[in-house]
């Protein structure tokens, strides 16, 4: 059973009431004076309606939105709650609101929602940019409406709205209601003519509106002086006038009531509300007080709170009496009170029946818990002062959140509890440790795990074993294998005694240790053994990792077909179960992109690697990050974006330094050396090589991998400095060592590098023998890019081998077919003029869109920028390519191979 699955009862269909504007409002007038102002300003970027409570902000917004909807606009409504102060909840609810109205975007928006669940902090900008792109692709105007923005004080949420406003496509506008003037760049928008601001002075009823409301709409018999006195006494405050209408309806002496009140705003509200409530039948008053504890109500919940079986009839009676109860959906299943009225009811409940408050909140908590709505169940338990019950609820659903990759939701619920609420709850601490670990919040994960160990009951072996697996998981994210195998051993020795999740993760960690200890066959066998446990976990996270690790093990042996099967399966599983842009899908896509690159499918590789990088490649074990930074930088450099490739490597180096990942630092440094040598910057390459780390700071295979990167990079620099003998000696040792240990892929790559060094040393026969010795496997596994990355020297050797194969004069073993060798040559590498073209990724993307016929406006919409920004990029492109217009720029880019 999932954390959101209703238990025992059926939740009304429209549980997402925050996504529905009020659909039926009694006793309101059309605010023509204000609507005329909004109509005159047309399609404004932002409409802000701000005033204290009870001024009709929401009513005015709804009236305007209905006009826009009648004109074909798509209206996305988000009624904000306190929980929207967390970026995770705000973005999730924003996507939920847009999903209700945006045609054809359900699947990508659902993918974005899944992505937020896995780490909102790292993905906010990407989610917003993608959302704006989806909105911009719609022909109709789209209006995002945020009701009660005053509830938001989180800086990150404010920043998200500013981003929406700054990069909004032409068809998007925002309507915002708030009790206070929002802290947004309103002056900037006003200068641009993109803001309409309506405040309390504008919202106050003038005398004519007050008369229309009291006399014509509510049918009260009042003369002009009475209306003027009430209008002046309430200062045009709409809520007070509404309360006046209720008080006067059955009043025996209306003149005395009109003369008897004074004051403004809340004091008027208190006075008039007392008059309304005191005139009600006791059972109606009791129902009002009992149901006031909830922000939203349905019939079954109202029955639970009032102890009556006719809860829906109770709500309908309250609505008929115009007691400030509004339906939230067309089906009239969910309702809420006007916030002023609800606030007063709650104060009166606490004053008159303080002993009932906690009991009512507990009833509400029970109902929401049975309905599977954990956040509201927790909130009401806390409101009842029942911290233990709230903690019970979180604990009940905690591991379900983890296994369904909803780690951020779990940590969000934990933030509502007191800091020490879970200190004596090992199972809850375990789930929190898992959540932090899988989000790669290493410090928090370790702190929680340490606390967990101190809270474990003596002799609870199962919990101790699971804690060991969490520790091992933290270790491998930190690229440590020195104790991981010992930590997971007990979970694998008696797997039937543990939850499938624990065994599946333990098997993945053991696989990671196996292939880094060059036990490649054992690593692959471990994943075959673990498949039943992966299949029995409730989420796909562990299963995706398992398939990725099986793919890495297969690639280590250069069994590329098997690796492709594993990695394709991983990508499809992740996308199917967690979403196209999920954390798991990005990890798998990075490795599949690397495989495509090896097979020469550069376009496919670039697409997958860029998908990974769009959300930041700072995730997973080092293998994933190395592909996301180093390999992606190599592809960009090959496309001509040399400066952007360097920026990407610098970013990767910063991540490696911050996370303390020495192997990632070595991989980034090695790729940087390759690119420096390609540019002829030998002295800079030597400096970087001297700064590469040594493997002594790590254990076993991790240390060997670091040293291999350092040694092969040093050999490349020595060769560039014409110390070919030194380079050959280093590489021959590496090749021999890797071949002896069965590291086929590494031995093959190093052999290609060795052949290039031998060619530059004029050792042509040796170069031909070295390269010929690995070409049969390169051809058989269809990985031509391993050879092509050898550069011009290796290409020269290969061209001679093509001739020798045709002549039947192959130097080592059986020769591949000449046509197979020619296929390895591929297209000739880019010319020097191509290499000098330095376009950024954004500039290349603009060129590609222009190449398929998109206009400047369409490009701007796709990239969520202004048309002027696109023109600015084009100006840069023309300067770099020496072109004068769009058509010529595309032509020049094609000649340079940038759009191949």
Automatic annotation (TrEMBL):
Domain HTH luxR-type: residue ranges: 832-897
UniProt keyword annotation of DNA-binding present: yes
Keywords carried by this UniProt record: DNA-binding
UniProt xrefs under Pfam families: AAA_16, GerE, WHD_MalT
Keyword DNA-binding listed: yes
Source taxon at top rank: Bacteria
SMART domains per the UniProt record, alphabetical: HTH_LUXR (SM00421)
SUPFAM superfamilies linked: C-terminal effector domain of the bipartite response regulators, P-loop containing nucleoside triphosphate hydrolases, TPR-like
PANTHER family (alphabetical): TWO-COMPONENT RESPONSE REGULATOR
Protein name: HTH luxR-type domain-containing protein
Provenance organism: Pseudonocardia kongjuensis
């Amino acid at each position: 059973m999932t954390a959101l699955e209703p238990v025992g009862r059926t939740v009304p269909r429209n549980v997402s009431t925050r996504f529905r504007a009020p659909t039926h409002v009694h006793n309101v007038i059309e605010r023509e004076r204000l609507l005329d102002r909004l109509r005159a300003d047309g399609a404004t970027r932002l409409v802000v309606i701000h005033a204290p409570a009870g001024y009709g902000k929401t009513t005015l917004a709804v009236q305007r939105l209905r006009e826009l909807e009648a004109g074909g606009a798509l209206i996305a409504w988000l009624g904000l709650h306190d929980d929207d102060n967390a970026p995770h909840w705000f973005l999730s609810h924003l996507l939920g609101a847009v999903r209700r109205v945006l045609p054809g975007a359900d699947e990508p928006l659902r993918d974005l929602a899944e992505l937020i669940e896995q780490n909102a902090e790292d993905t906010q900008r990407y989610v917003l940019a993608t959302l704006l792109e989806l909105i911009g692709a719609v022909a109709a105007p789209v209006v995002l409406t945020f009701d009660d923005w005053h509830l938001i004080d989180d800086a990150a949420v404010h920043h998200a709205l500013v981003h929406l406003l700054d990069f909004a496509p032409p068809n998007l506008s925002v309507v915002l209601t708030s009790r206070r003037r929002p802290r947004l760049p309103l002056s900037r928008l006003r200068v641009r003519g993109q803001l309409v601001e309506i405040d309390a002075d504008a919202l106050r009823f003038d005398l004519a509106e007050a008369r229309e409301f009291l006399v014509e709409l509510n049918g009260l018999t009042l003369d002009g002086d009475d209306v003027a006195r009430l209008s002046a006494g309430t200062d045009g405050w709409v809520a007070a006038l509404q309360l006046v209408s209720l008080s006067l309806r059955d009043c025996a002496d209306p003149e005395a009531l009109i003369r008897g009140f004074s004051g403004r705003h809340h004091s008027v509200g208190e006075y008039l509300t007392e008059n309304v409530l005191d005139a009600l039948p006791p059972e109606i008053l009791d129902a009002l007080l009992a149901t006031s504890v909830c922000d939203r109500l349905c019939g079954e919940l109202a029955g639970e709170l009032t102890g009556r079986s006719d809860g829906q009839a109770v709500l309908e009676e309250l609505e008929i009496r115009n007691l400030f109860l509004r339906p939230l959906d067309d089906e009239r299943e969910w309702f809420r009170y006007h916030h002023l009225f609800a606030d007063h009811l709650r104060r009166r409940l606490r004053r008159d029946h303080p002993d009932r408050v906690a009991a009512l909140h507990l009833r509400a908590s029970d109902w929401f818990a049975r309905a599977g709505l954990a956040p509201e169940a927790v909130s009401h338990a806390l409101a009842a002062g029942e911290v233990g019950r709230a903690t019970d609820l979180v604990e009940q659903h905690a591991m379900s959140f983890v296994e369904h990759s909803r780690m951020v939701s779990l940590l969000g619920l934990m933030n509502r509890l007191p800091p020490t609420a879970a200190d004596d709850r090992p199972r809850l601490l375990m789930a929190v440790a898992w959540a932090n670990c899988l989000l790669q919040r290493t410090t928090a994960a370790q702190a929680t795990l340490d606390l967990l160990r101190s809270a474990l009951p003596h002799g609870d072996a199962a919990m101790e074993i699971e804690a060991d697996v969490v520790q091992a998981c933290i270790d491998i994210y930190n690229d440590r294998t020195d104790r991981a195998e010992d930590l997971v051993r007990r979970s694998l020795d008696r797997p039937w005694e543990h939850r499938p999740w624990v065994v599946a993760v333990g098997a993945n960690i053991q696989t990671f240790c196996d292939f880094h200890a060059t036990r490649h066959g054992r690593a692959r066998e471990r994943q075959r053994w673990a498949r039943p446990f992966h299949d029995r976990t409730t989420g796909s996270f562990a299963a995706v990792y398992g398939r990725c690790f099986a793919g890495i093990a297969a690639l280590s042996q250069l069994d590329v077909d098997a690796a492709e099967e594993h990695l394709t399966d991983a990508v499809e599983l992740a996308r199917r179960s967690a979403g196209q842009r999920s954390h798991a899908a990005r990890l798998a896509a990075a490795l599949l992109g690397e495989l495509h690159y090896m097979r020469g499918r550069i376009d496919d590789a670039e697409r997958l690697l860029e998908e990974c990088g769009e959300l930041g490649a700072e995730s997973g074990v080092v293998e994933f990050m190395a592909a996301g930074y180093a390999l992606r930088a190599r592809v960009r450099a090959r496309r001509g974006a040399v400066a952007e490739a360097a920026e990407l490597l610098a970013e990767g180096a910063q991540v490696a330094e911050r996370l303390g990942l020495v192997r990632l630092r070595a991989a980034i440094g090695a790729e940087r050396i390759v690119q420096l040598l390609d540019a002829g910057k030998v002295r800079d390459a030597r400096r970087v090589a001297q700064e590469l780390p040594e493997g002594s700071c790590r254990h076993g295979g991790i240390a060997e991998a670091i040293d291999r990167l350092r040694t092969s990079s040093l050999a490349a620099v020595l060769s560039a400095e014409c110390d070919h003998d030194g380079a050959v000696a280093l590489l021959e040792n590496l090749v021999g060592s890797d071949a002896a240990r069965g590291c086929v892929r590494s031995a093959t790559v190093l052999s290609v590098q060795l052949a290039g060094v031998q060619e530059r040393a004029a050792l042509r026969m040796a170069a031909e023998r070295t390269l010929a010795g690995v070409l049969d496997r390169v051809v058989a596994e269809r990985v031509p890019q391993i050879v092509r990355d050898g550069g011009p020297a290796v290409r020269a050797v290969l061209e001679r081998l093509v001739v020798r194969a045709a002549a039947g004069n192959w130097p080592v073993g059986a020769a591949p077919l000449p046509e197979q060798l020619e296929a390895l040559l591929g297209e000739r590498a880019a010319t020097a003029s191509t290499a000098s073209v330095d376009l950024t990724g954004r500039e290349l993307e603009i060129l590609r869109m222009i190449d398929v016929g998109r206009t400047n406006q369409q490009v701007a919409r796709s990239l969520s920028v202004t048309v002027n920004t696109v023109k600015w990029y084009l100006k840069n492109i023309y300067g770099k390519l020496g072109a004068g217009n769009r058509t010529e720029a595309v032509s020049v880019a094609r000649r340079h191979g940038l759009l191949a």
